Description:
By secondary structure, chain A is mainly beta. Chain A is 0% helix and 51% strand. Chain A folds into 2 domains: 1-30, no CATH class; 32-129, Immunoglobulin-like (Sandwich). Chain B has one domain. The mean pLDDT of chain B is 92.
Amino acid sequence: MTDYGEKISRDGYDVKTATDKQLVLSSKFKTFTITLSGSSNVSISSGDYRNRVEITHGLGYIPAFSIYGKESTESEYHKVPHTNATFSISFYFLYCWADSNKIYLEAQFGSGSPANKTFNFKYYIFNNQIA
Amino acid sequence: MILFYQKKTGKIFATMDGRVHDEKQLNCFIVDDQIDKEEIGKYIIGWIQKYNEKEKETDKIGYNLDQFKILEKFEDITPESPLDYKIINGKLQKC
């Protein structure tokens, strides 16, 4: 059988003789590939404690996924799930989960009397199957 | 890029990245629990790729290409976000 593919070696190693550890890239390696990515806002109206956005991926299996989120006024993103558990009365939780048809992004308030709040999410859904 | 927005307000609440979208991506949908599904619109900037059975080739149909300059801003490293925009009369406007 013909051995074919593509590989790139690290600086200083001959690509023809390099071991796997001496490669930067090889088409032989299993890698995550993104099928869908984007962003979403989840807004919670005053008086409500939770809201959810559902992304239909329609893959027919549960894909690997990676989600990041923040409250809209924050400058840094957090890896979801995330608990903002400071002494602030507006502390919040960000969740995500997946099934064979959808990815779910949810924001919840922990306590207090929340005003209108918006949470920003970034999502990456991979072709790779986890179940 | 596919933008999902509330028809009543024009406010964009979710996006799907990319410039060329295939049928699989077009079948994907994003809903917000607090917005009726019928109230959600889809706005595409870029191309839809469809396989033409008769011609045995792939067609690309462009949508809202006049908004491409704004799309480039969404994709670059500036903090310009489509979630800060709304769609009014088929055009993107900053909220």
